[in-house]
């Protein structure tokens, strides 16, 4: 089983760091400066029984189905059909209007989406997260909500399980 997984979120939430975690290689560029990743960066995680192609979306651009289809055609692999799952990454310590823009686009896309609340290593008081999560969940139904730390690897195994389930 094989498919595309899109990693989506505003700049600086940790998309490149997450991609590096998931594929276990330094394929993606990370930086404090927003929008270091100007081009679409992909990483392939090949396992015994599945293969996940992760797409790190540059900046605020959400991959539309058309763009993914173009990409898919180039991939010349007929078993790849569409984005199987979106990983919507937010920063648990820093919520902005840009996150809301991304959320609105995702909600309209109708794609199955898992909300990943990143940088939980920096969240001192877990209850600080709840108002944001409440707001998010009211706007869109998520497949799941998972607190993660891309930097430290917290709950990355849980994310991988979700990906496997989606493929
Ligand atoms: P992108 O713009 O969404 O691709 O974000 P990056 O992956 O480039 O990360 C932006 C910044 O956040 C970098 O300085 C990362 O080291 C930092 N970062 C990413 N994930 C985490 C995390 O889980 N915890 C903490 N504390 N910092 C993180
Ligand atoms: Mg990046």
Automatic annotation (TrEMBL):
It comes from the Bacteria. Residues 148-150 are annotated as: G5. Keywords: Cell membrane, Cytoplasm, GTP-binding, Membrane, Nucleotide-binding, Ribosome biogenesis, RNA-binding, rRNA-binding. It is a peripheral membrane protein. The keyword Phosphoprotein does not apply. GO terms for molecular function: GTP binding; GTPase activity; ribosomal small subunit binding; small ribosomal subunit rRNA binding. The keyword Transport does not apply. Residues 118-121 are annotated as: G4. Residues 56-59 are annotated as: G3. Residues 35-39 are annotated as: G2. It is found in: Cytoplasm; Cell membrane. One of its GO terms (biological process) is ribosomal small subunit assembly. GO terms for cellular component: cytosol; plasma membrane. Residues 9-16 are annotated as: G1. Residues 1-167 form the Era-type G domain. GTP binds at residues 9-16, 56-60, 118-121. An essential GTPase that binds both GDP and GTP, with rapid nucleotide exchange. Plays a role in 16S rRNA processing and 30S ribosomal subunit biogenesis and possibly also in cell cycle regulation and energy metabolism. Monomer. Belongs to the TRAFAC class TrmE-Era-EngA-EngB-Septin-like GTPase superfamily. Era GTPase family. This is GTPase Era.
């Amino acid at each position: 089983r094989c498919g595309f997984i899109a990693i989506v979120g505003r700049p600086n939430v940790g998309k490149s760091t997450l991609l590096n975690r998931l594929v276990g290689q330094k394929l993606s560029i990370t930086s404090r400066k927003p929008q270091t990743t100007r081009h679409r960066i992909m990483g392939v995680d090949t396992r015994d029984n599945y293969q996940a192609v992760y797409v790190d979306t540059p900046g605020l651009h959400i991959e539309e189905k058309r763009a993914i289809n173009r990409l898919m055609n180039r991939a010349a692999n007929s078993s790849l059909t569409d984005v199987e799952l979106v990983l919507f990454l937010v920063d648990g310590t820093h919520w902005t209007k840009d996150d809301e823009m991304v959320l609105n686009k995702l909600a309209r896309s109708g794609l199955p989406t898992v909300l990943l609340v990143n940088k939980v290593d920096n969240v001192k008081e877990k209850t600080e997260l709840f108002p944001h999560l409440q707001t998010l969940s009211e706007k869109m139904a998520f497949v799941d909500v998972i607190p993660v730390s891309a930097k430290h690897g917290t709950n990355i195994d849980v994310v991988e399980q979700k990906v496997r389930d989606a493929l």
